[in-house]
Structures are given as C-alpha cells and as structure tokens.
Design goal:
Length: 452
Amino acid sequence: MPKYIKRTVSTGTVGAIMNDQKSLDSLFDKLLTNEQIFTNKEVLRHSYTPDELPHRQNQVETLASVLVSVFRGETPSNLFVYGKTGTGKTAVVKHVGKALVRKIGGNFFAKPFHSTRTVPDFVSTITTHKCPVWFIYMNCEVVDTQYRLLAKLGEYFGQTIPLTGWPTDKVYDTFFSTLDMEERLVIIVLDEIDRLLRKGSDEVLYNLTRINSDLSNAKVSVIGITNDLNFIEFLDPRVRSSLGEEEIVFPPYDAIQIQDILSQRAKMSCRSLDVIDAGVIPLCSAFAAQEHGDARRALDLFRVAGELAERERSKRIVERHVREAKERIEQDRIVEVVKTLPTQSKLILYSCILLEKYEPSGISTGEVYNVYRDLCKLSASEVLTQRRISDIISELDMLGIVNARVVSKGRYGRTKEIHMGVPVTQVKRVLEQDRKIERVTTYVPPIQHRLS
DNA sequence: CGTCCACAGGAATCCCTGGGTT
DNA sequence: AACCCAGGGATTCCTGTGGACG
C-alpha cells in the first residue's frame, strides 16, 4: 500500500480521537465542503465514445466512403481495420456506424434486443430506402467461439438459442434462415477478430464472408477489427481476400496528438482547468506515447492521478500524482491477475518465486516441475504433467508475470529460461493468501548444484 | 564434426461440464 | 433414460532442435 494512504489514515484517526469536539466538527466540514476535482469521470472511461475524434478524420472519411454505398442500395465491401490498442479503431467504427444509422434510419446494435420484444419499428422508417440496415457491433473477446458468435447473431434477429447444446450447423441454419427472412442489409462489426482465429474458430469467418452467395433476400458485409498485425498472415487465404477488400490502418498516436485527446476529455471531466497542473497532461501523454501511442493509457493515468489527488484532498492534480498513478495502475493490474489465477498456475508461479532466490541466472522448466511436484504433495493438489506445466509457464509469460524464453544449453539440452517479470515480494504475498499456497509457505526447495 | 541432452511444442485423444433431443 | 454436441483443460505420444561436449 502506498505511503500517502497510511499517512492520511493514521494522522486522521489519531487527530479525530485526540482533538476536541470542535475540530471533530470541522473535520466533517472539511470533508463536506471539499471541492472535488472531477465532475464527470464517465468521459474518461474506455467505453465512452466522444462526438469528436481528434486526429482520426482520415479514417472516419475512408470508412464513410466505404459505407456510403448503402445509400445506393449496394452492399458495402468487406472491410479490415487494424491498428494497435488505444488508437481509436473501435471508437471510429462505432461513430461512423451511428452516423450511418441516424442518416438512413436503420438500427444500431451493441446488444441484442430481447427476443420477446417485437422488432423495433425501423422497418417503417426505412421504406423510402431500398432496404433496412442493421449495424451490429460484436466483441469477439466475449463471444470467442464459432458457436457463441452464431448464437449471438441469431439473438439479434429474435431467435432464442441456448448457450450450449445444439450442434453448430443447426445454429448456423437458424441464424441463416431468420436472417434471410426479409430483405435487409446487415453490417457486422467483429472487434478483436483475432480471438476467433486463436481459438480455432475461424471457420465461421469463412462462412460469414461467403454467405452472400447463398442469401436471396438479405445482404451481409463484415468489418473486422484487430490489433494483431500478424493476424492477416495466419488467415485462410480465401477469407483474407474476401475480408480485405478494403483496409483502414490506424497508426499510433504521437505524444502531441494524445495531448489533444486528453485535453478534450480533461476539459469535460474536471470541475475546471485550474485543478490541473501545467505539466500533468503532457506527462500523461508522454507515458502513453511510450506505450505504442495508447490513448486509453493516457486517460487511465489521468483518471487515477485525479483520484489520488482527490483522496489526498489536494486542490490540484500535479505531476507527482501522475507518476504515482503509473505505479499504481501497474501494481493493481499485477495483483488482480495473480489473485485470479487458477490454483495450478499459482503453484507454478510460487515454484518460480521460490527458485529465483537460488537461481538468479534463470530457472529451467525441469527445476520448476520438481519443486511444483513437491508443492502439490504438500498441498494435496493434483499433479499435472510436465507438458501441461510447459504451457502454463507460457501462459504466465504472456501475462507478463514471468519472462520465459527458450534457450539452448548445448550438451545440457534446451529449456525455457524463466525470470520473474514483476516485483517478487508483492506477488508472493498475494499468492500466500490462497488457501492451497498457505499450506506450503514453509517449504524450502532442495539446493540444486549444477555445472556452469 | 557428430552426438545427444532436456526439453519445446504440435496433434490426437480423453474427460468433464453444461446443455440439448428423442 | 439414453444419447448427441461444443468447448476447455488435461494427457499421451510424438517429432524436432541449438549448441557445448567429446
């Protein structure tokens, strides 16, 4: 826990107890009259889409020029959108989608309407146009398998499909037939589309991109969004060519651009601009620019810095708050990730931590496995195979908790060389809160000699 | 220069859960 | 009750391999 909280709590408590009635009253007064820094924190959240998107005019116009064919009654080309996280991809697509729907009178969906409800009355508003337009936004991080995606899509068209149980082709057929019941144009946005591929559910992409040739009434066009630039490489060539009819690239923001974005939001969220010290916004922006131009990071930094300032009852946000916020965000992330790890992963991670003391030059998979087995016995856990442990270590690596790279020690074989990627003492403390780990805290790994 | 270690990591299969249909 | 299906975690079996040692 950061120092400043301790300080505030201890002096506050002691003061309240020790001082007389008058200062107790004034303590409350101070709390009540304390002017907050934020008046509207919502605009700093990731989910908030502003009306203006600074430095994304190009992308907005390109996207609009692809979708404009809707007005001519044509099906827009399939589209592929890529750029790193926090570069405004989702915001731009949603923004243009809303504008399109408003103009043409269709329907914008970010979640399905309940199936018992009747279909919204957009059909009547649309009769002047060639056909109704449905704009459906879907995040594949949540719906990440073929089954779930099709089921969710079916839901948009009023079908009730169970979360599990049906064979996939039946789900597809149901979705297909309801979709084709009437003339309409459906624009499906698949955000984080790379998730589907990672889970091996890319068959659904193939089906979706060639669905038009089987449909007789409805038309579908797909917008795929990804932040994984290698994603395209691994895609089925047929899907790649079909999905990539058009492409829009979102380059990372530079520090100056992030400053613009952050200033815009800061203005909306704060009581007044006076509460922000001059260096704060540039510093947030600089930090965010370092992280591949992630605008969200800047917003997070600013929000947390503001919260820290409020907690301190400081009148203004200063640079120190930003630095503390940076620390804080990272710490919270780690604690959250470690705490929610499955027990087996925790045991593996704990093994790594125990070994690190003795092998500062890097730990091998075999060493981890030996310690892990001991820990399993002590904590009465099931022992998994080394194959699985190898995968779990890789998962921990991807989460950034450890760094594991494959090295060859020549005569002594190939293995992963594992280093801790985060502060050890804190992670250890979090792990030891787990009931299984609690039982093995006294374990000391046998000292292993090895040739070097 | 060939060997051979200590694993990496792919593929197929199994097991289990949560749900369906007949 | 008997049987089918998807999906996630785990196991089994497997082939592949960088480079220090001899």
